[in-house]
Every structure is written in C-alpha cells, then in structure tokens.
Model the fold of this input.
Amino acid sequence: MSFGNQIKTVVLLGLLTGLLLAVGRLLGGQAGLFAALIFSVLMNFGAYWFSDKIVLAMYRAKPADKKTHAHLHKIVEEVVAAANIPKPKVYIIPTEAANAFATGRNPKNAAVACTEGIMKLLTDKELKGVIAHEISHVKNRDILVTTIAATIAGVISYLAHMAQFAAIFGGGRRDDRGGGNAITLLALAIITPIIAMILQLAISRSREYLADHSGAAIIRDSEPLASALAKLDKAALHHKMGMGNEATASLFIVNPLKGHGLISLFSTHPPLEARLQRLRSMKF
Done:
C-alpha cells in the first residue's frame, strides 16, 4: 500500500509536468514561460523555507511546556524513536477544535502542533496514532512533495492567465484561423487551471493515505489512528477551526471542508470511510 501511494504520487506529478509542457508548447512564448517559472519557483521556495513559521503564527501556536504537557512530549519521543528521526518541536494550539498538523521542510527542521481540543478528546493511545501520522508526513518529506506540486500548478495557472490575456488582446483577428486561436486560448485559460488543481489535490490525498499507512506501521497498530479519525471527523462538526482557511486545510489530519461525489475531487483529504477501510485492512 505504501509503495503504491508513492507510485501514485510520481504518476500524478508526471501528469502535472506533462500538462505544464503541453500548455507551454501550445502557447509558445518561451520568455513568458520562463518568467512564470521563475516567479512561481521563488514564491514556492519562500513557502518551503518559511511556511512552518507562518502557519504556526497564524494559528497562535505556542511551544508545549515540557512539564504541563509531559505526556504529549513522551508520546512524540516514543514515536520519533520508532520512526528513527529527530524529535520535532512540539506546539499547542489554543482552541477547542480537535485537530493536529506537522510542518517543516525536513526531519531536522520540523514541528508538530496539537490543539487543546484533540488532547481532551483522544486517549493517549489514539493520540499516539495521530502523532505517528504527523511524524510520517515529516519522514516522508511531504512538505517538499506538495511544494513541487504547488510550483508546477502555479506555473500552469500563470500560463493560463497569459492565455486568457492573449485571447482577449491578441487573438481577436477576424479571420477564421484567428477566431479559432482565440477560442483555443480561452479554453486553455479556463480548463487547465482546473485540471492542475484536481491533480494537485489528488497528490495531497495520496500523501494522506501514505501517512495513514506509514504512521500505523511505525507503531505497529492501525486501530488507534482509525479510532482517532472517527472521533475527529465527528468532532469537526461541532468545533470549527475558527482561524482556519482553505489554504491551510491540507495541513491538518482532519479536513473541516468535507464533500462527497464531485465535490470530493476538490478535497485535500480522502473520504473518512476510505481511510478507515484501508487502516483496518492492515495486518501486522
């Protein structure tokens, strides 16, 4: 299962890259492509290096005191010892909403944050399952993977914007060929960002499945995480992350923006039922 999700991520990143090359070829304009690439890479490079500090500040996270939250530190230490990575910094988010996330560009520069609500809701065993999931994100370098996906998707979005501009101001010739070019450019501007976003979100869901699997493997037990996810999903209906937004939804173990059917294509997290089924089918 873990290997399958790694392959899926590679395939999805390949599709994103292929879409980028196809759009670039249709548009031509190497100078515009290069400018969009440089801008997007710089933007995402900054996000890769500083997103941990930004998101921790956004949620008013405070370092977890080693005396007050001794049991949390103990759980984190047990998990990282089993995962064979350095202990990340541990933070507390002052909210009754039950959730957690990990951030940081690599295992040596990582942080795990838990809300006050999640520590009240879960048993220590369930909390350990959650921490193992989050530590897996760090060990699997998911910040790097999602940054690469965001960079490619960002370039595609900029190219689509260029296509829209070209269709309006450069594709308005009156001959049939010019009209066809304008329609093609407008279609490119509308459709490609949507496809890029769907692929990017599919990568996010694939990494969640991977973190579920590898987190359960770290502690050699999938039931604590499955039980925790069921509780967290239900609790999310009653306590919202008031300071949260769509841009940071993918960080958390439970996504407050849930959907079904077509809407699930635009979700950063897999459906709860699918996650539970996969976890509970694991054998140790």
Summary: Residues 172-178 have pLDDT under 50 and may be disordered. Residues 2-280 form one domain. Residues 60 and 77 are 23 Å apart (CA to CA).
